[in-house]
Write a structure and sequence with these properties.
The chain is mainly beta. The chain contains 1 helix and 39 strands. The strands form 10 sheets. Strands 1, 29, 30, 31 and 32 form a 5-stranded antiparallel β-sheet that branches. Strands 6, 7, 8, 9 and 10 form a 5-stranded antiparallel β-sheet that branches. The longest helix has 15 residues, at 2-16. The two termini are 32 Å apart.
Length: 478
């Protein structure tokens, strides 16, 4: 039994503190003209990351920037003006970046913009109209685009959180040359909630049939768009599907009401967009669930098979609002608060809901308020933290996630051999090694695997329960 006890101690240690290396590529705030507050997700072209900040720059209204994945070559491509606020994920087509401004444009209702990767050719080529004073909160085309864009290469699709003829947002399309703008979905009025008007925006958290206030990025699969709304439906938002021509709008999931302490069975308020793999959509809710801190869920595209994969507790991180990243059978995401420093976490969980793990507890020094989705290159995730960092204005970071041993139900002795699950980023190489003395370790390689992003099983064919020597195992990447 001595061998089993000592090995268990090692595996538990590895599972509770996963191997990862956090590297700050750029810290905002030391030079104000660089910008501060990278609020959107990043775009990648070659080995260069592109993003935006919401403040700073020479005009104090934010910037468009680039930085190489090794942290070199930071440059401000454009200092924004006219009180614009970039928000939502950008898309890259060739050498042109497309994105949205939450405010700004000719009527200050937000806009769709483009800029080349060398900083030239900036244009806000569609401006959303102002609200109608006679019908507060409404207009013809939507207002405040927040979820970012998706594209099929020639057409951009996005959402507005407010506006439209009922004040609850829209889904729109526009060609990349700025032509043929069209509203393809207007969300219906909400009832039974409390109406408030702020800055001529109608706020109503009531119910309707189709959802209200889309805030997350759409998913485009062929001719079908999938999305979420933060409000509306029977109570707390919906997951929906529709065709790119505006037809066939269908609610796939209604999120239920909350108890007096903010809990429910499924989660509430799907603020983030979705992630699609095959016929399954994955997402998070900003609240609800067993502890009121949000959930991770999966749902079939035909509206069946809804499954809650994880209920967030405070130590896991709380209030996930960013889209998930899927690698193999593992989902990665972030939370806005909770965790060891109450600044949020970066987490992973398998698509079957098993093995939830906090990869990193975010803090003031390294940056927090992360804005997924991540970009994965090799075994390193790249992302933006909107606040904190060395200079206090946010940071661009890389998080290298190394292979790890998992403490799950497969850990232990089977048929006289000791074994365990292990996992890592797909296409990583994982080398499993064993030694008998940690004071003077002489690690012997037992097995080399190409990782898939899903759990794999290892058993030590040389293991003997009666061999009388301590056994220690590790997995490393060359």
């Amino acid at each position: 039994m001595k061998t089993i006890v000592w090995t268990l101690m090692l595996v538990l240690s590895a599972a509770s503190v996963p191997a990862q290396v956090y590297n700050t590529l750029h810290s905002f705030g030391s030079v104000y003209r660089d910008g501060t507050g990278p609020l959107t997700g990043l775009a990648l072209h070659g080995n260069t990351l592109y993003g935006t900040t919401v403040s700073g720059g020479t005009n104090y209204n934010g910037t468009v920037f680039k930085v190489n994945t090794d942290g070199t070559g930071y440059a401000t491509l454009l200092s924004l003006s006219n009180s614009v606020v970039p928000e939502g994920d950008m898309v890259l087509i060739g050498t042109t970046i497309f994105g949205t401004m939450f405010t700004g444009g000719s009527a200050n209702g937000g806009s769709v913009f483009k800029i080349n990767t060398d900083g030239s050719g900036y244009a806000e080529f569609y401006s959303f109209s102002d609200m109608m004073p006679s019908f507060p909160g409404t207009n013809s085309d939507g207002n405040r685009p927040q979820g970012g864009l998706v594209t099929d290469g020639s057409t951009l699709y996005g959402t507005t959180t407010y506006g439209g003829t009922n004040g609850n947002g829209t889904v729109f399309r526009i060609n990349t040359d700025g032509s043929r703008f069209a509203v393809i979905k207007t969300f219906s009025p909400t009832f039974l909630g409390t109406n408030n008007v702020s800055n001529n925006i109608l706020i109503n958290s009531g119910t309707n049939g189709d959802g209200a206030r889309p805030t997350g990025r759409l998913v485009l699969d062929g001719n079908t768009l999938y999305g979420t709304t933060f409000h509306g439906g029977t109570s707390n938002g919906v997951v929906f599907a529709m065709q790119t021509d505006g037809s066939g709008y269908t609610v796939l999931k209604y999120f239920p009401g909350l108890t007096g302490v903010g809990t429910n069975g499924d989660g509430a308020g799907p603020y983030a967009g979705l992630t699609l793999r095959g016929d399954t959509l994955y997402g998070v809710t900003d609240g609800g669930g067993a502890w009121s801190y949000g959930t991770v869920y999966g749902l079939k595209t035909n509206s069946t098979g809804f499954a809650k994969l994880h209920d967030f507790q405070f130590g896991d991180g709380t209030y996930p609002i960013g889209s998930l990243f899927l690698d193999g059978g593992t989902l990665y995401g972030t939370t806005q608060a909770g965790g060891a420093s109450n600044r949020g976490t970066i987490f992973m969980v398998l698509t079957n809901g098993a093995d939830f793990t906090v990869l990193r507890n975010l803090d003031v020094n390294s940056g927090y308020d992360c804005k997924p989705p991540f970009i994965l290159i090799g075994s390193t995730f790249y992302g933006a933290a909107a606040a904190g960092g060395t200079n206090g204005g946010g940071a661009i970071f890389g998080l290298a996630v190394l292979p790890q041993i998992m403490n799950d139900g497969n850990f232990g002795i089977r048929s006289g051999a000791f074994g365990f699950d292990f996992t890592g980023i797909s296409r990583q190489t994982g080398i499993i090694e064993r030694c008998t003395n940690l004071a003077q370790p002489a690690w012997s390689p037992l097995q080399t695997n190409l990782l898939t992003g899903a759990p794999q099983y290892f058993f030590d064919a040389q293991f003997s329960q009666d061999q009388g020597a301590d056994g220690f195992y590790r997995i490393r990447s060359p």
